[in-house]
Amino acid sequence: MSPPFARHETDSPRHSSGTDCSRPVRQRGSCFLMKRVRTTVAVKLTLVALASLIGPGAVASGETPASIVFQSDFENGSIDTKLWNISGNAPTVTSEVARAGKYAMKTVLNRKTSPKSFRTEVSTGGKEKVKPGQEYWYGFSIYLPKSYVADNIWEIVAQWHSSPDNEEEFNNAPNPPLSLHTGNGVWTISTIWDAKPITDKKLGYDGKRSYKLGSYATGKWTDWVFRVKWSHKSDGLLQVWKDGELVVDYKGPIGYNDQKGPYFKIGLYKGWKDRTDPPGVVSERVLYHDEVRIAGPGGRYEDVAPGGKKPTTTLPRPAAPTGIRFED
Question: In whole angstroms, what is the distance from residue 308 CA to residue 288 CA?
């Protein structure tokens, strides 16, 4: 089907100027000029029509949307320390698997041999400069290999961590206000909120909520998109898509009464802080992350979604809120 307004032929060979384009030998110059004008107008109209079909805010293929405030696809073959801060053991970049391109971030954590028995992560360190009260979009993909069997010791594979205010001491740093878990073989999303000016985890929080999203799949990539309005008040928002399906739709407080919003971390944070604790099912974890994007206010699902896919609209009923155990 031809695009609208693409046709530029006239219905009649004779124009209002009296020039006869059926006789190009005598009046070739005039006809060429008129056809060129009509062609130029038609092309402009076609572009306008196509733009109206695509819609406002559309971005040409290969371009970075203006809303993006942070992105990392690991295609330079190493952890870019200009983007990421190492937290605990350092992940690596590998070509073993990739969600897109050739490379992905590989996380290895061994309870017995890793220098830090409980953490192999990278963090943005606040480079996305999140402001409380505004909406942000986060997209990333996680690959759990076949060896990623269910374990009863808690583990976090993505988290958003708060930062202390300028005058605040982080002696009893609060737990992450938002985190994604894989404990007991189940995807779980946990949220915390607290309106106190200084949150001390020993004194407790105003509220917690967790969503159990079912058993995780191994040997495949799982795509995640989070839409968050960080607010300790009732106007907060959390929407989560898993492989394009809306699985969490929550309106209410999320996060702390902070001057700065949370920063993002990926990798593995696991309850192996004491190597002498009773062992779980496994003593080593390996997993992969790829296609990390963060969009600020004005962002859209498509700006951060791995592969640029659009979401579905199905909303399964989330599990009832349950308590969840956090560890440092």
Answer: 19
